[in-house]
Amino acid sequence: xxxxxxxxxxxxxxxxxxxxxxxxxxxxxxxxxxxxxxxxxxxxxxxxxxxxxxxxxxxxxxxxxxxxxxxxxxxxxxxxxxxxxxxxxxxxxxxxxxxxxxxxxxxxxxxxxxxxxxxxxxxxxxxxxxxxxxxxxxxxxxxxxxxxxxxxxxxxxxxxxxxxxxxxxxxxxxxxxxxxxxxxxxxxxxxxxxxxxxxxxxxxxxxxxxxxxxxxxxxxxxxxxxxxxxxxxxxxxxxxxxxxxxxxxxxxxxxxxxxxxxxxxxxxxxxxxxxxxxxxxxxxxxxxxxxxxxxxxxxxxxxxxxxxxxxxxxxxxxxxxxxxxxxxxxxxxxxxxxxxxxxxxxxxxxxxxxxxxxxxxxxxxxxxxxxxxxxxxxxxxxxxxxxxxxxxxxxxxxxxxxxxxxxxxxxxxxxxxxxxxxxxxxxxxxxxxxxxxxxxxxxxxxxxxxxxxxxxxxxxxxxxxxxxxxxxxxxxxxxxxxxxxxxxxxxxxxxxxxxxxxxxxxxxxxxxxxxxxxxxxxxxxxxxxxxxxxxxxxxxxxxxxxxxxxxxxxxxxxxxxxxxxxxxxxxxxxxxxxxxxxxxxxxxxxxxxxxxxxxxxxxxxxxxxxxxxxxxxxxxxxxxxxxxxxxxxxxxxxxxxxxxxxxxxxxxxxxxxxxxxxxxxxxxxxxxxxxxxxxxxxxxxxxxxxxxxxxxxxxxxxxxxxxxxxxxxxxxxxxxxxxxxxxxxxxxxxxxxxxxxxxxxxxxxxxxxxxxxxxxxxxxxxxxxxxxxxxxxxxxxxxxxxxxxxxxxxxxxxxxxxxxxxxxxxxxxxxxxxxxxxxxxxxxxxxxxxxxxxxxxxxxxxxxxxxxxxxxxxxxxxxxxxxxxxxxxxxxxxxxxxxxxxxxxxxxxxxxxxxxxxxxxxxxxxxxxxxxxxxxxxxxxxxxxxxxxxxxxxxxxxxxxxxxx
Length: 949
Prior knowledge:
Layout: H1 2-19, H2 28-51, H3 56-90, H4 95-133, H5 135-140, H6 149-157, H7 172-183, E1 191-195, H8 202-210, H9 213-218, E2 221-226, H10 233-244, H11 249-257, H12 260-273, E3 276-283, H13 286-292, E4 304-309, H14 312-315, E5 322-326, H15 332-343, H16 356-366, H17 373-383, H18 389-397, H19 399-405, H20 417-425, H21 432-437, E6 447-448, H22 449-458, H23 464-469, H24 475-488, E7 493-494, E8 505-507, H25 510-522, E9 527-529, H26 535-543, E10 551-555, E11 576-580, E12 605-607, E13 630-632, E14 653-655, E15 663-664, E16 677-679, E17 684-685, E18 700-705, H27 711-714, E19 722-726, H28 734-740, H29 742-745, E20 750-754, H30 762-772, E21 778-782, E22 800-804, H31 813-816, E23 824-828, E24 837-841, E25 851-855, E26 860-865, E27 875-879, E28 899-903, H32 907-912, E29 928-931
Parallel strand pairs: 1-4, 1-5, 2-3, 3-4, 9-10, 10-11, 11-12, 12-13, 13-14, 14-16, 15-17, 16-18, 18-19, 19-20, 20-21, 21-22, 22-23, 23-25, 24-26, 25-27, 27-28, 28-29
Antiparallel strand pairs: 6-8, 7-8
Helix pairs in contact: 1-2, 1-3, 2-3, 2-4, 3-4, 10-12, 15-17, 16-18, 17-19, 20-25, 22-24, 28-30
């Protein structure tokens, strides 16, 4: 991964020298020379990265290159920031002090210049060493007279059509579905793709289809080819053609004598004229498909291609009628069936049904496999050689290693790890650090996409240069694209999805995480400390043998007496510090709990969330951490907002959504001119107005208080896209202010307005604000409102609307159903109280609505849905609507409804929607029905649920 590090450092130095050139004038020559050396180095690093796993010398070189590149970035940026700070302070000094400052600055220039030259010399020496070592020649050369590493790897991955697995479990439904797609005559697919992570059984499934009786009878001819990483296009075409025509010796010679164009044309005609099935197993890259595709017809034909791949981009090739089949992990039942089948195969001395101890151990060990057939097969293969309970216990004690390495517990190729690592090895250099970054997160945890993308940007994994290449896309947009690519490559799993299908949360499979941590350790990318106080130094010493620790993830548990050690000499090198698991943690003392953070001089990322202990103090020295790009103290009881935070001029994300009420925010945010995302507390005060007009890069502004912030400043935030605003009881000339900010407000895409419960004018303010933001895609209104803006239907982009704790009159539904582009509507405690409301959805109403949610609407006693209303509705959720006893008959007309969730409704309604109930016919057509428990409490106690919002 040195290639990625050097590339990112090079981009970072370029960006910094462009933005802060005036502060580097004294060392510009040295910086330029260092950049040149890094550029020369890039040419050798791809081969060095690939080789370091098999050559200790190369591994040491790569580690040194990585650390030297980081050192260069630290020196240049630290110097630039120091000069900037001194120039700002110098304006306040008298003439004598100014001369002293100039003299000192000259000394610093000499020292920094020499330091940069020293690092440049190191880079040059390392490059010369790599050049003389001839990495490329070693990489391709036979290893000890035998196969090279790549040749061995390729041979181990090769699949053959004649091999039929004996132990196949859990693929029956997959085979049945895919056979149907392969055999159908109407609307047939040119391409059928099996997509999934490594080890799920894609090749096994393809073999089941290849040898299926119905498939072999349906197709005139079949061909199987495993597409290796170093495939030759001609060889692939030749192999397929020879198999499809069952070539004689003479025909094989004719094919050998053909040109590439002639072979492609011949294969094209055979596939067009005959009914053939061609299986291309293990295609990794879309570039591979692009090289092969010209020999496969893209016109109507009876032939079919079946692809197996880990890459969704390959599974859905452009300009082809393709069907995507995503292979899933095995259920617990099927996992045990496969496990048992292998363990007892051919052995009469083991019966897991009778051996209580072995069954208990086996069940526990299977949980680590998480339904991955490859891992189950490896584990079962190990245990099939073990006879006694004690031998099984030994495997159980170190089950991860046995799954990872296999039978011998030492040979990588016998286990699951190397198969999964192939996906990592195939990543482009820029995605490797993004993937390794996921190792920060604890096992089985789901991480928020919105925060992860900000962390990647703060770490410099996405550069300004890439943003320019992405046209109007922000760096956060590019980060989301890269995360999607990791999902498409089956290294990341989608967790929580938004109501509009966007990815909100992700996770990684436990075995993929193990592989991720293994790679992160090899690359010295990340260190995880599981408890404090004593482990930090020893773990750091071990990890630093081949590199300096740059990122720390600390998992705080009940054993810890503090968050981080102040005695660790490696603290001054750490760039990223993320804490996890501290919510239930109670330290002996909170005094000075965060003080050791001042030792982290070059820290870029600091995440300390969920500190529930009241009165934790953020040290004023945090203002010295001038490299910080990301700071999150979300959901923590922080005592105060230190004014020194204004020194953090590089800060991009500040999440200060602390749990402390009535906090005073000093007017220093305006100094953080690089801020892209600002999250203020829910309730805060300020001495005068918080000035925000200098934050020209700001995209997200959360909890803007009209009372303590000048709305005129918002008009100057031309990059603002997400705004959360809280109403006030005393604001004059709002209409005039909003008019002056019109062009900026029209660019806002997401708007959340909290209406003040204690102000009669707050509803009018909210209406004026909404009326000024006509470009919004997403709108949430929270608080007492009786009417919606009448011109809402003229908002061309409005697709998502959420109304919470409102007092809307019953006629407001007529406004809502006329919104032409509304796809998502959430109503939560949004209607007038003490009114029996008939909710009426008329014919033609909500023409684009795809998702509808009713949550705690006790006023609804009847709900009418006419035929023709909500024609595109796919998801419907109804919860805590305790007055509703009957579902509308019109639900049966919603033919596109795919998912219906009903929870905590009155018992009478639950009786009616049971399979033998009176209303079941209205919803029986819905494929996914989620019916939860009825609400057991009385109606009035249900009112307490309003606090949920």
